Amino acid sequence: MPCARRTGEGALLESTLLALGPVNVARARHDLRTLAGLLPTGVEEPLEQLRALGDQVAASFTTPAPDAAPDAAHLDVGRALLERHGDELVVAALVAAVGQGVGWDVAVVASERRALVGHRGCGGPLALSIAHEGRMLDANDLREGPDLRWRCPREVAALIADRAT
């Protein structure tokens, strides 16, 4: 059954990511807190939260070129945090975890090929494009079909595992 709504605390996505492989948990949590420290406080509007998350956090990451050969290293959560470079889905999950960590209602919106970060308070279709350094876009323009949808931490982990095979 697909996960349509956020069901737990923001720490659930973080914990799920840190359980995916060998990660220095203390270092990863420090990095996530450091990224959260870049976000402005007192921002209540969902659209402004999404914009700040894109400008301050997602923009600090890069992703491989769309035509790049698959590389398992890009799926390594610890490495993605350390190098600020990784698979689009891993980066989207990290960005969402940072937003959730400060209490914002953000989550991964993904298909088999694309990964974005959306804010439930904005409704659709605005989302952060991880492949474009966190720029906001209209997800309807992607023409990804019905498989572009909100993903819970379990689904994010399953998609990452699928990409690793």
Structure in words:
With about 160 residues, the protein is α+β, with helices and mostly antiparallel strands. It has helices at about 10-20, 25-35, 45-55, 75-85, 90-100, 155-165, and strands at about 105-110, 115-120, 125-130, 135-140, 150. Strands 4-3-2-1-5 form a 5-stranded antiparallel beta sheet. The longest helix has 14 residues, at about 90-100. The two termini are about 20 Å apart.
Tell me how many strands there are.
Answer: 5
Helix content: 25-40%
Largest sheet geometry: 5 strands, antiparallel
The overall pLDDT, averaged over residues, is 87
* Poorly predicted segments: 1-7
Number of helices: 6
SS-based structural class?
alpha+beta
End-to-end CA span = 22 Å
How does the overall form come out from the CA principal axes?
globular
- Strand order, sheet with most strands: 4-3-2-1-5
Q: What sequence of helices (H) and strands (E) makes up the elements?
A: HHHHHEEEEEH
What share of residues are in beta strands? 5-15%
Computed over alpha carbons, the radius of gyration is 14 Å
What's a concise summary of this model?
The chain is of the alpha+beta class and 165 residues long. Helix content is 39%, strand content 13%. It has a 5-stranded antiparallel sheet with strand order 4-3-2-1-5.
Topology:
Layout: H1 11-18, H2 25-36, H3 46-56, H4 77-83, H5 88-101, E1 106-110, E2 115-119, E3 126-129, E4 135-138, E5 149-151, H6 153-164
Helix pairs in contact: 1-5, 2-4, 2-5
Q: What labels describe this entry?
A:
165 residues; 5 strands; alpha+beta; disordered N terminus
